[in-house]
Design a protein that fits this description.
The chain is 81% helix and 0% strand. The protein has 387 residues and is mainly α. It has two domains: 178 residues, MFS general substrate transporter like domains (Growth Hormone, Chain: A, Up-down Bundle), CATH 1.20.1250.20; 179 residues, Growth Hormone, Chain: A (Up-down Bundle). The relative contact order is 0.15.
């Protein structure tokens, strides 16, 4: 059946893309350290990856509006893989590493928002669930965040670049068969983005999402260190990370059904409240039992938030505008929000300590909820404008 085949290619792309990401995130810093980079240099190179998500998705979303995602995603995936391999040619030179990192990050940031838009279009056409396709990305992340450790233990850091590039090349292969929409007609009038951008609720939504994702900066940068300070060993910490992503997978499996039953607004609101609760419990009750329990809230702070956001954005950016809407969401919420959150968490950790850092993250998520309330107010029906 064609729909099953198309869904299989989408699931394969997510799995392979997040395999590469799951191998990259935990070991990028150690690989840079093995290349002789200082802590400051590692911070700059890590921030370069994060902040590339601010500009790049918007540019690629704009180009997809005219060229179609079919002409962009496969090339971007292939250049990303080549960029990873090119990092080995820098031989530890910081300037070369920075230039190559900016290049591969720029193309890597192109793929996921455009594929998300493609998946939502396909899901609506086929009556399928976005979450049940997207969960394969989470499974890929688990597989390689654990598996890459064993690979590096056997082969050393020399396996880092080719190990990731293999999955990126495979993702390129899968991207060639994704169910993209029809190519834009150069002579047809195109819907404008300006009407949507004038809506105040959109900017409340983006600000709320930015704050919610910024609150994760403490978790991604310092959770493992914080857990170690409270008596957990590395094996236990690894299991806690894996448990959190398994809870994320479970929500992606059932989340679309839950959104249909409860509505986007209620799921969104619950995600923000539970995110604040998660960071608050970690701050004030960091014992093992509570930490295990609140790790299950990753299903809310990431999976429920992202799934509700994708549905919300898809409703505000219909048809030909969807790729640009997803790109705007990715750049502001994950690019800018993630980058500012990481920087802010570093500052608060250095000046306020671990407990107050997670307390601040909890307050940040609650503050984001204030803007979310404004964003979820009913909006007037959008009228498509022609150029």
């Amino acid at each position: 059946m064609q729909a099953d085949r198309e869904g299989g290619w989408l699931a394969a792309f997510y799995f392979l893309y997040f395999c590469a990401l799951g191998a990259f995130m935990p070991y990028w810093g150690p690989w840079l350290h093995a290349q002789g980079q200082s802590p400051l240099a590692i911070g700059i190179l890590t921030a370069a990856v994060q902040f590339s998500k601010v500009l790049a998705p918007n540019l690629w979303g704009w180009l997809a509006h005219f060229w179609g995602s079919r002409r962009i995603v496969p090339w971007a995936a292939l250049i990303t893989a080549a960029g990873f391999l090119a990092l080995g040619l820098a031989h530890g030179n910081f300037s070369a590493l920075l230039l190559i990192t900016l290049t591969f990050s720029f193309f890597w940031a192109a793929t996921l928002p455009l594929v998300d838009a493609t998946t939502m279009d396909w899901a609506q056409r086929c009556g399928a669930a976005y979450g049940r396709i997207r969960l394969w990305g989470s499974l890929g992340f688990i597989a390689l965040s654990l598996g890459m450790g064993g690979l590096l233990a056997h082969w050393g850091m020399t396996a880092f670049l080719p190990g990731i590039a293999i999955f990126l090349v495979a993702a390129w292969g899968a991207s060639r068969y994704l169910p993209y929409g029809t190519l834009p007609d150069a002579n047809a009038p195109r819907p404008r983005l300006s009407g949507t951008l004038r809506q105040v609720s959109l900017w409340f939504f983006l600000l709320a999402g930015l704050l919610e994702q910024a609150s994760h900066g403490a978790y991604y940068a310092f959770y493992s260190i914080y857990a170690e300070q409270h008596g957990l060993g590395s094996a236990a910490i690894g299991m806690l990370w894996g448990f959190a992503v398994l809870c994320e997978v479970a929500f992606f499996w059932w989340g679309d059904r839950l959104i249909r039953r409860l509505g986007v607004s209620l799921v969104f609101t619950g995600a923000f409240v539970l995110t604040a609760l998660r960071w608050g419990v970690i701050a004030w009750w960091p014992g093992l039992v509570w930490i295990i329990l609140v790790q299950s809230l990753h299903a809310a702070s990431y999976a429920a938030f992202h799934l509700a956001a994708v549905h919300w954005v898809s409703g505000r950016f219909p048809g030909a505008l969807r790729a640009r809407g997803m790109a705007l969401y990715a750049s502001v919420v994950y690019g800018l929000g993630g980058g500012l959150g990481a920087l802010g968490a570093g500052w608060t950790w250095a000046h306020w300590g671990g407990q107050n850092t997670f307390a601040a993250a909890s307050a940040l998520a609650l503050f984001g909820g204030v803007f979310l309330i404004q964003a979820l107010r009913p909006a007037p029906t959008l009228e498509k404008e022609a150029d």
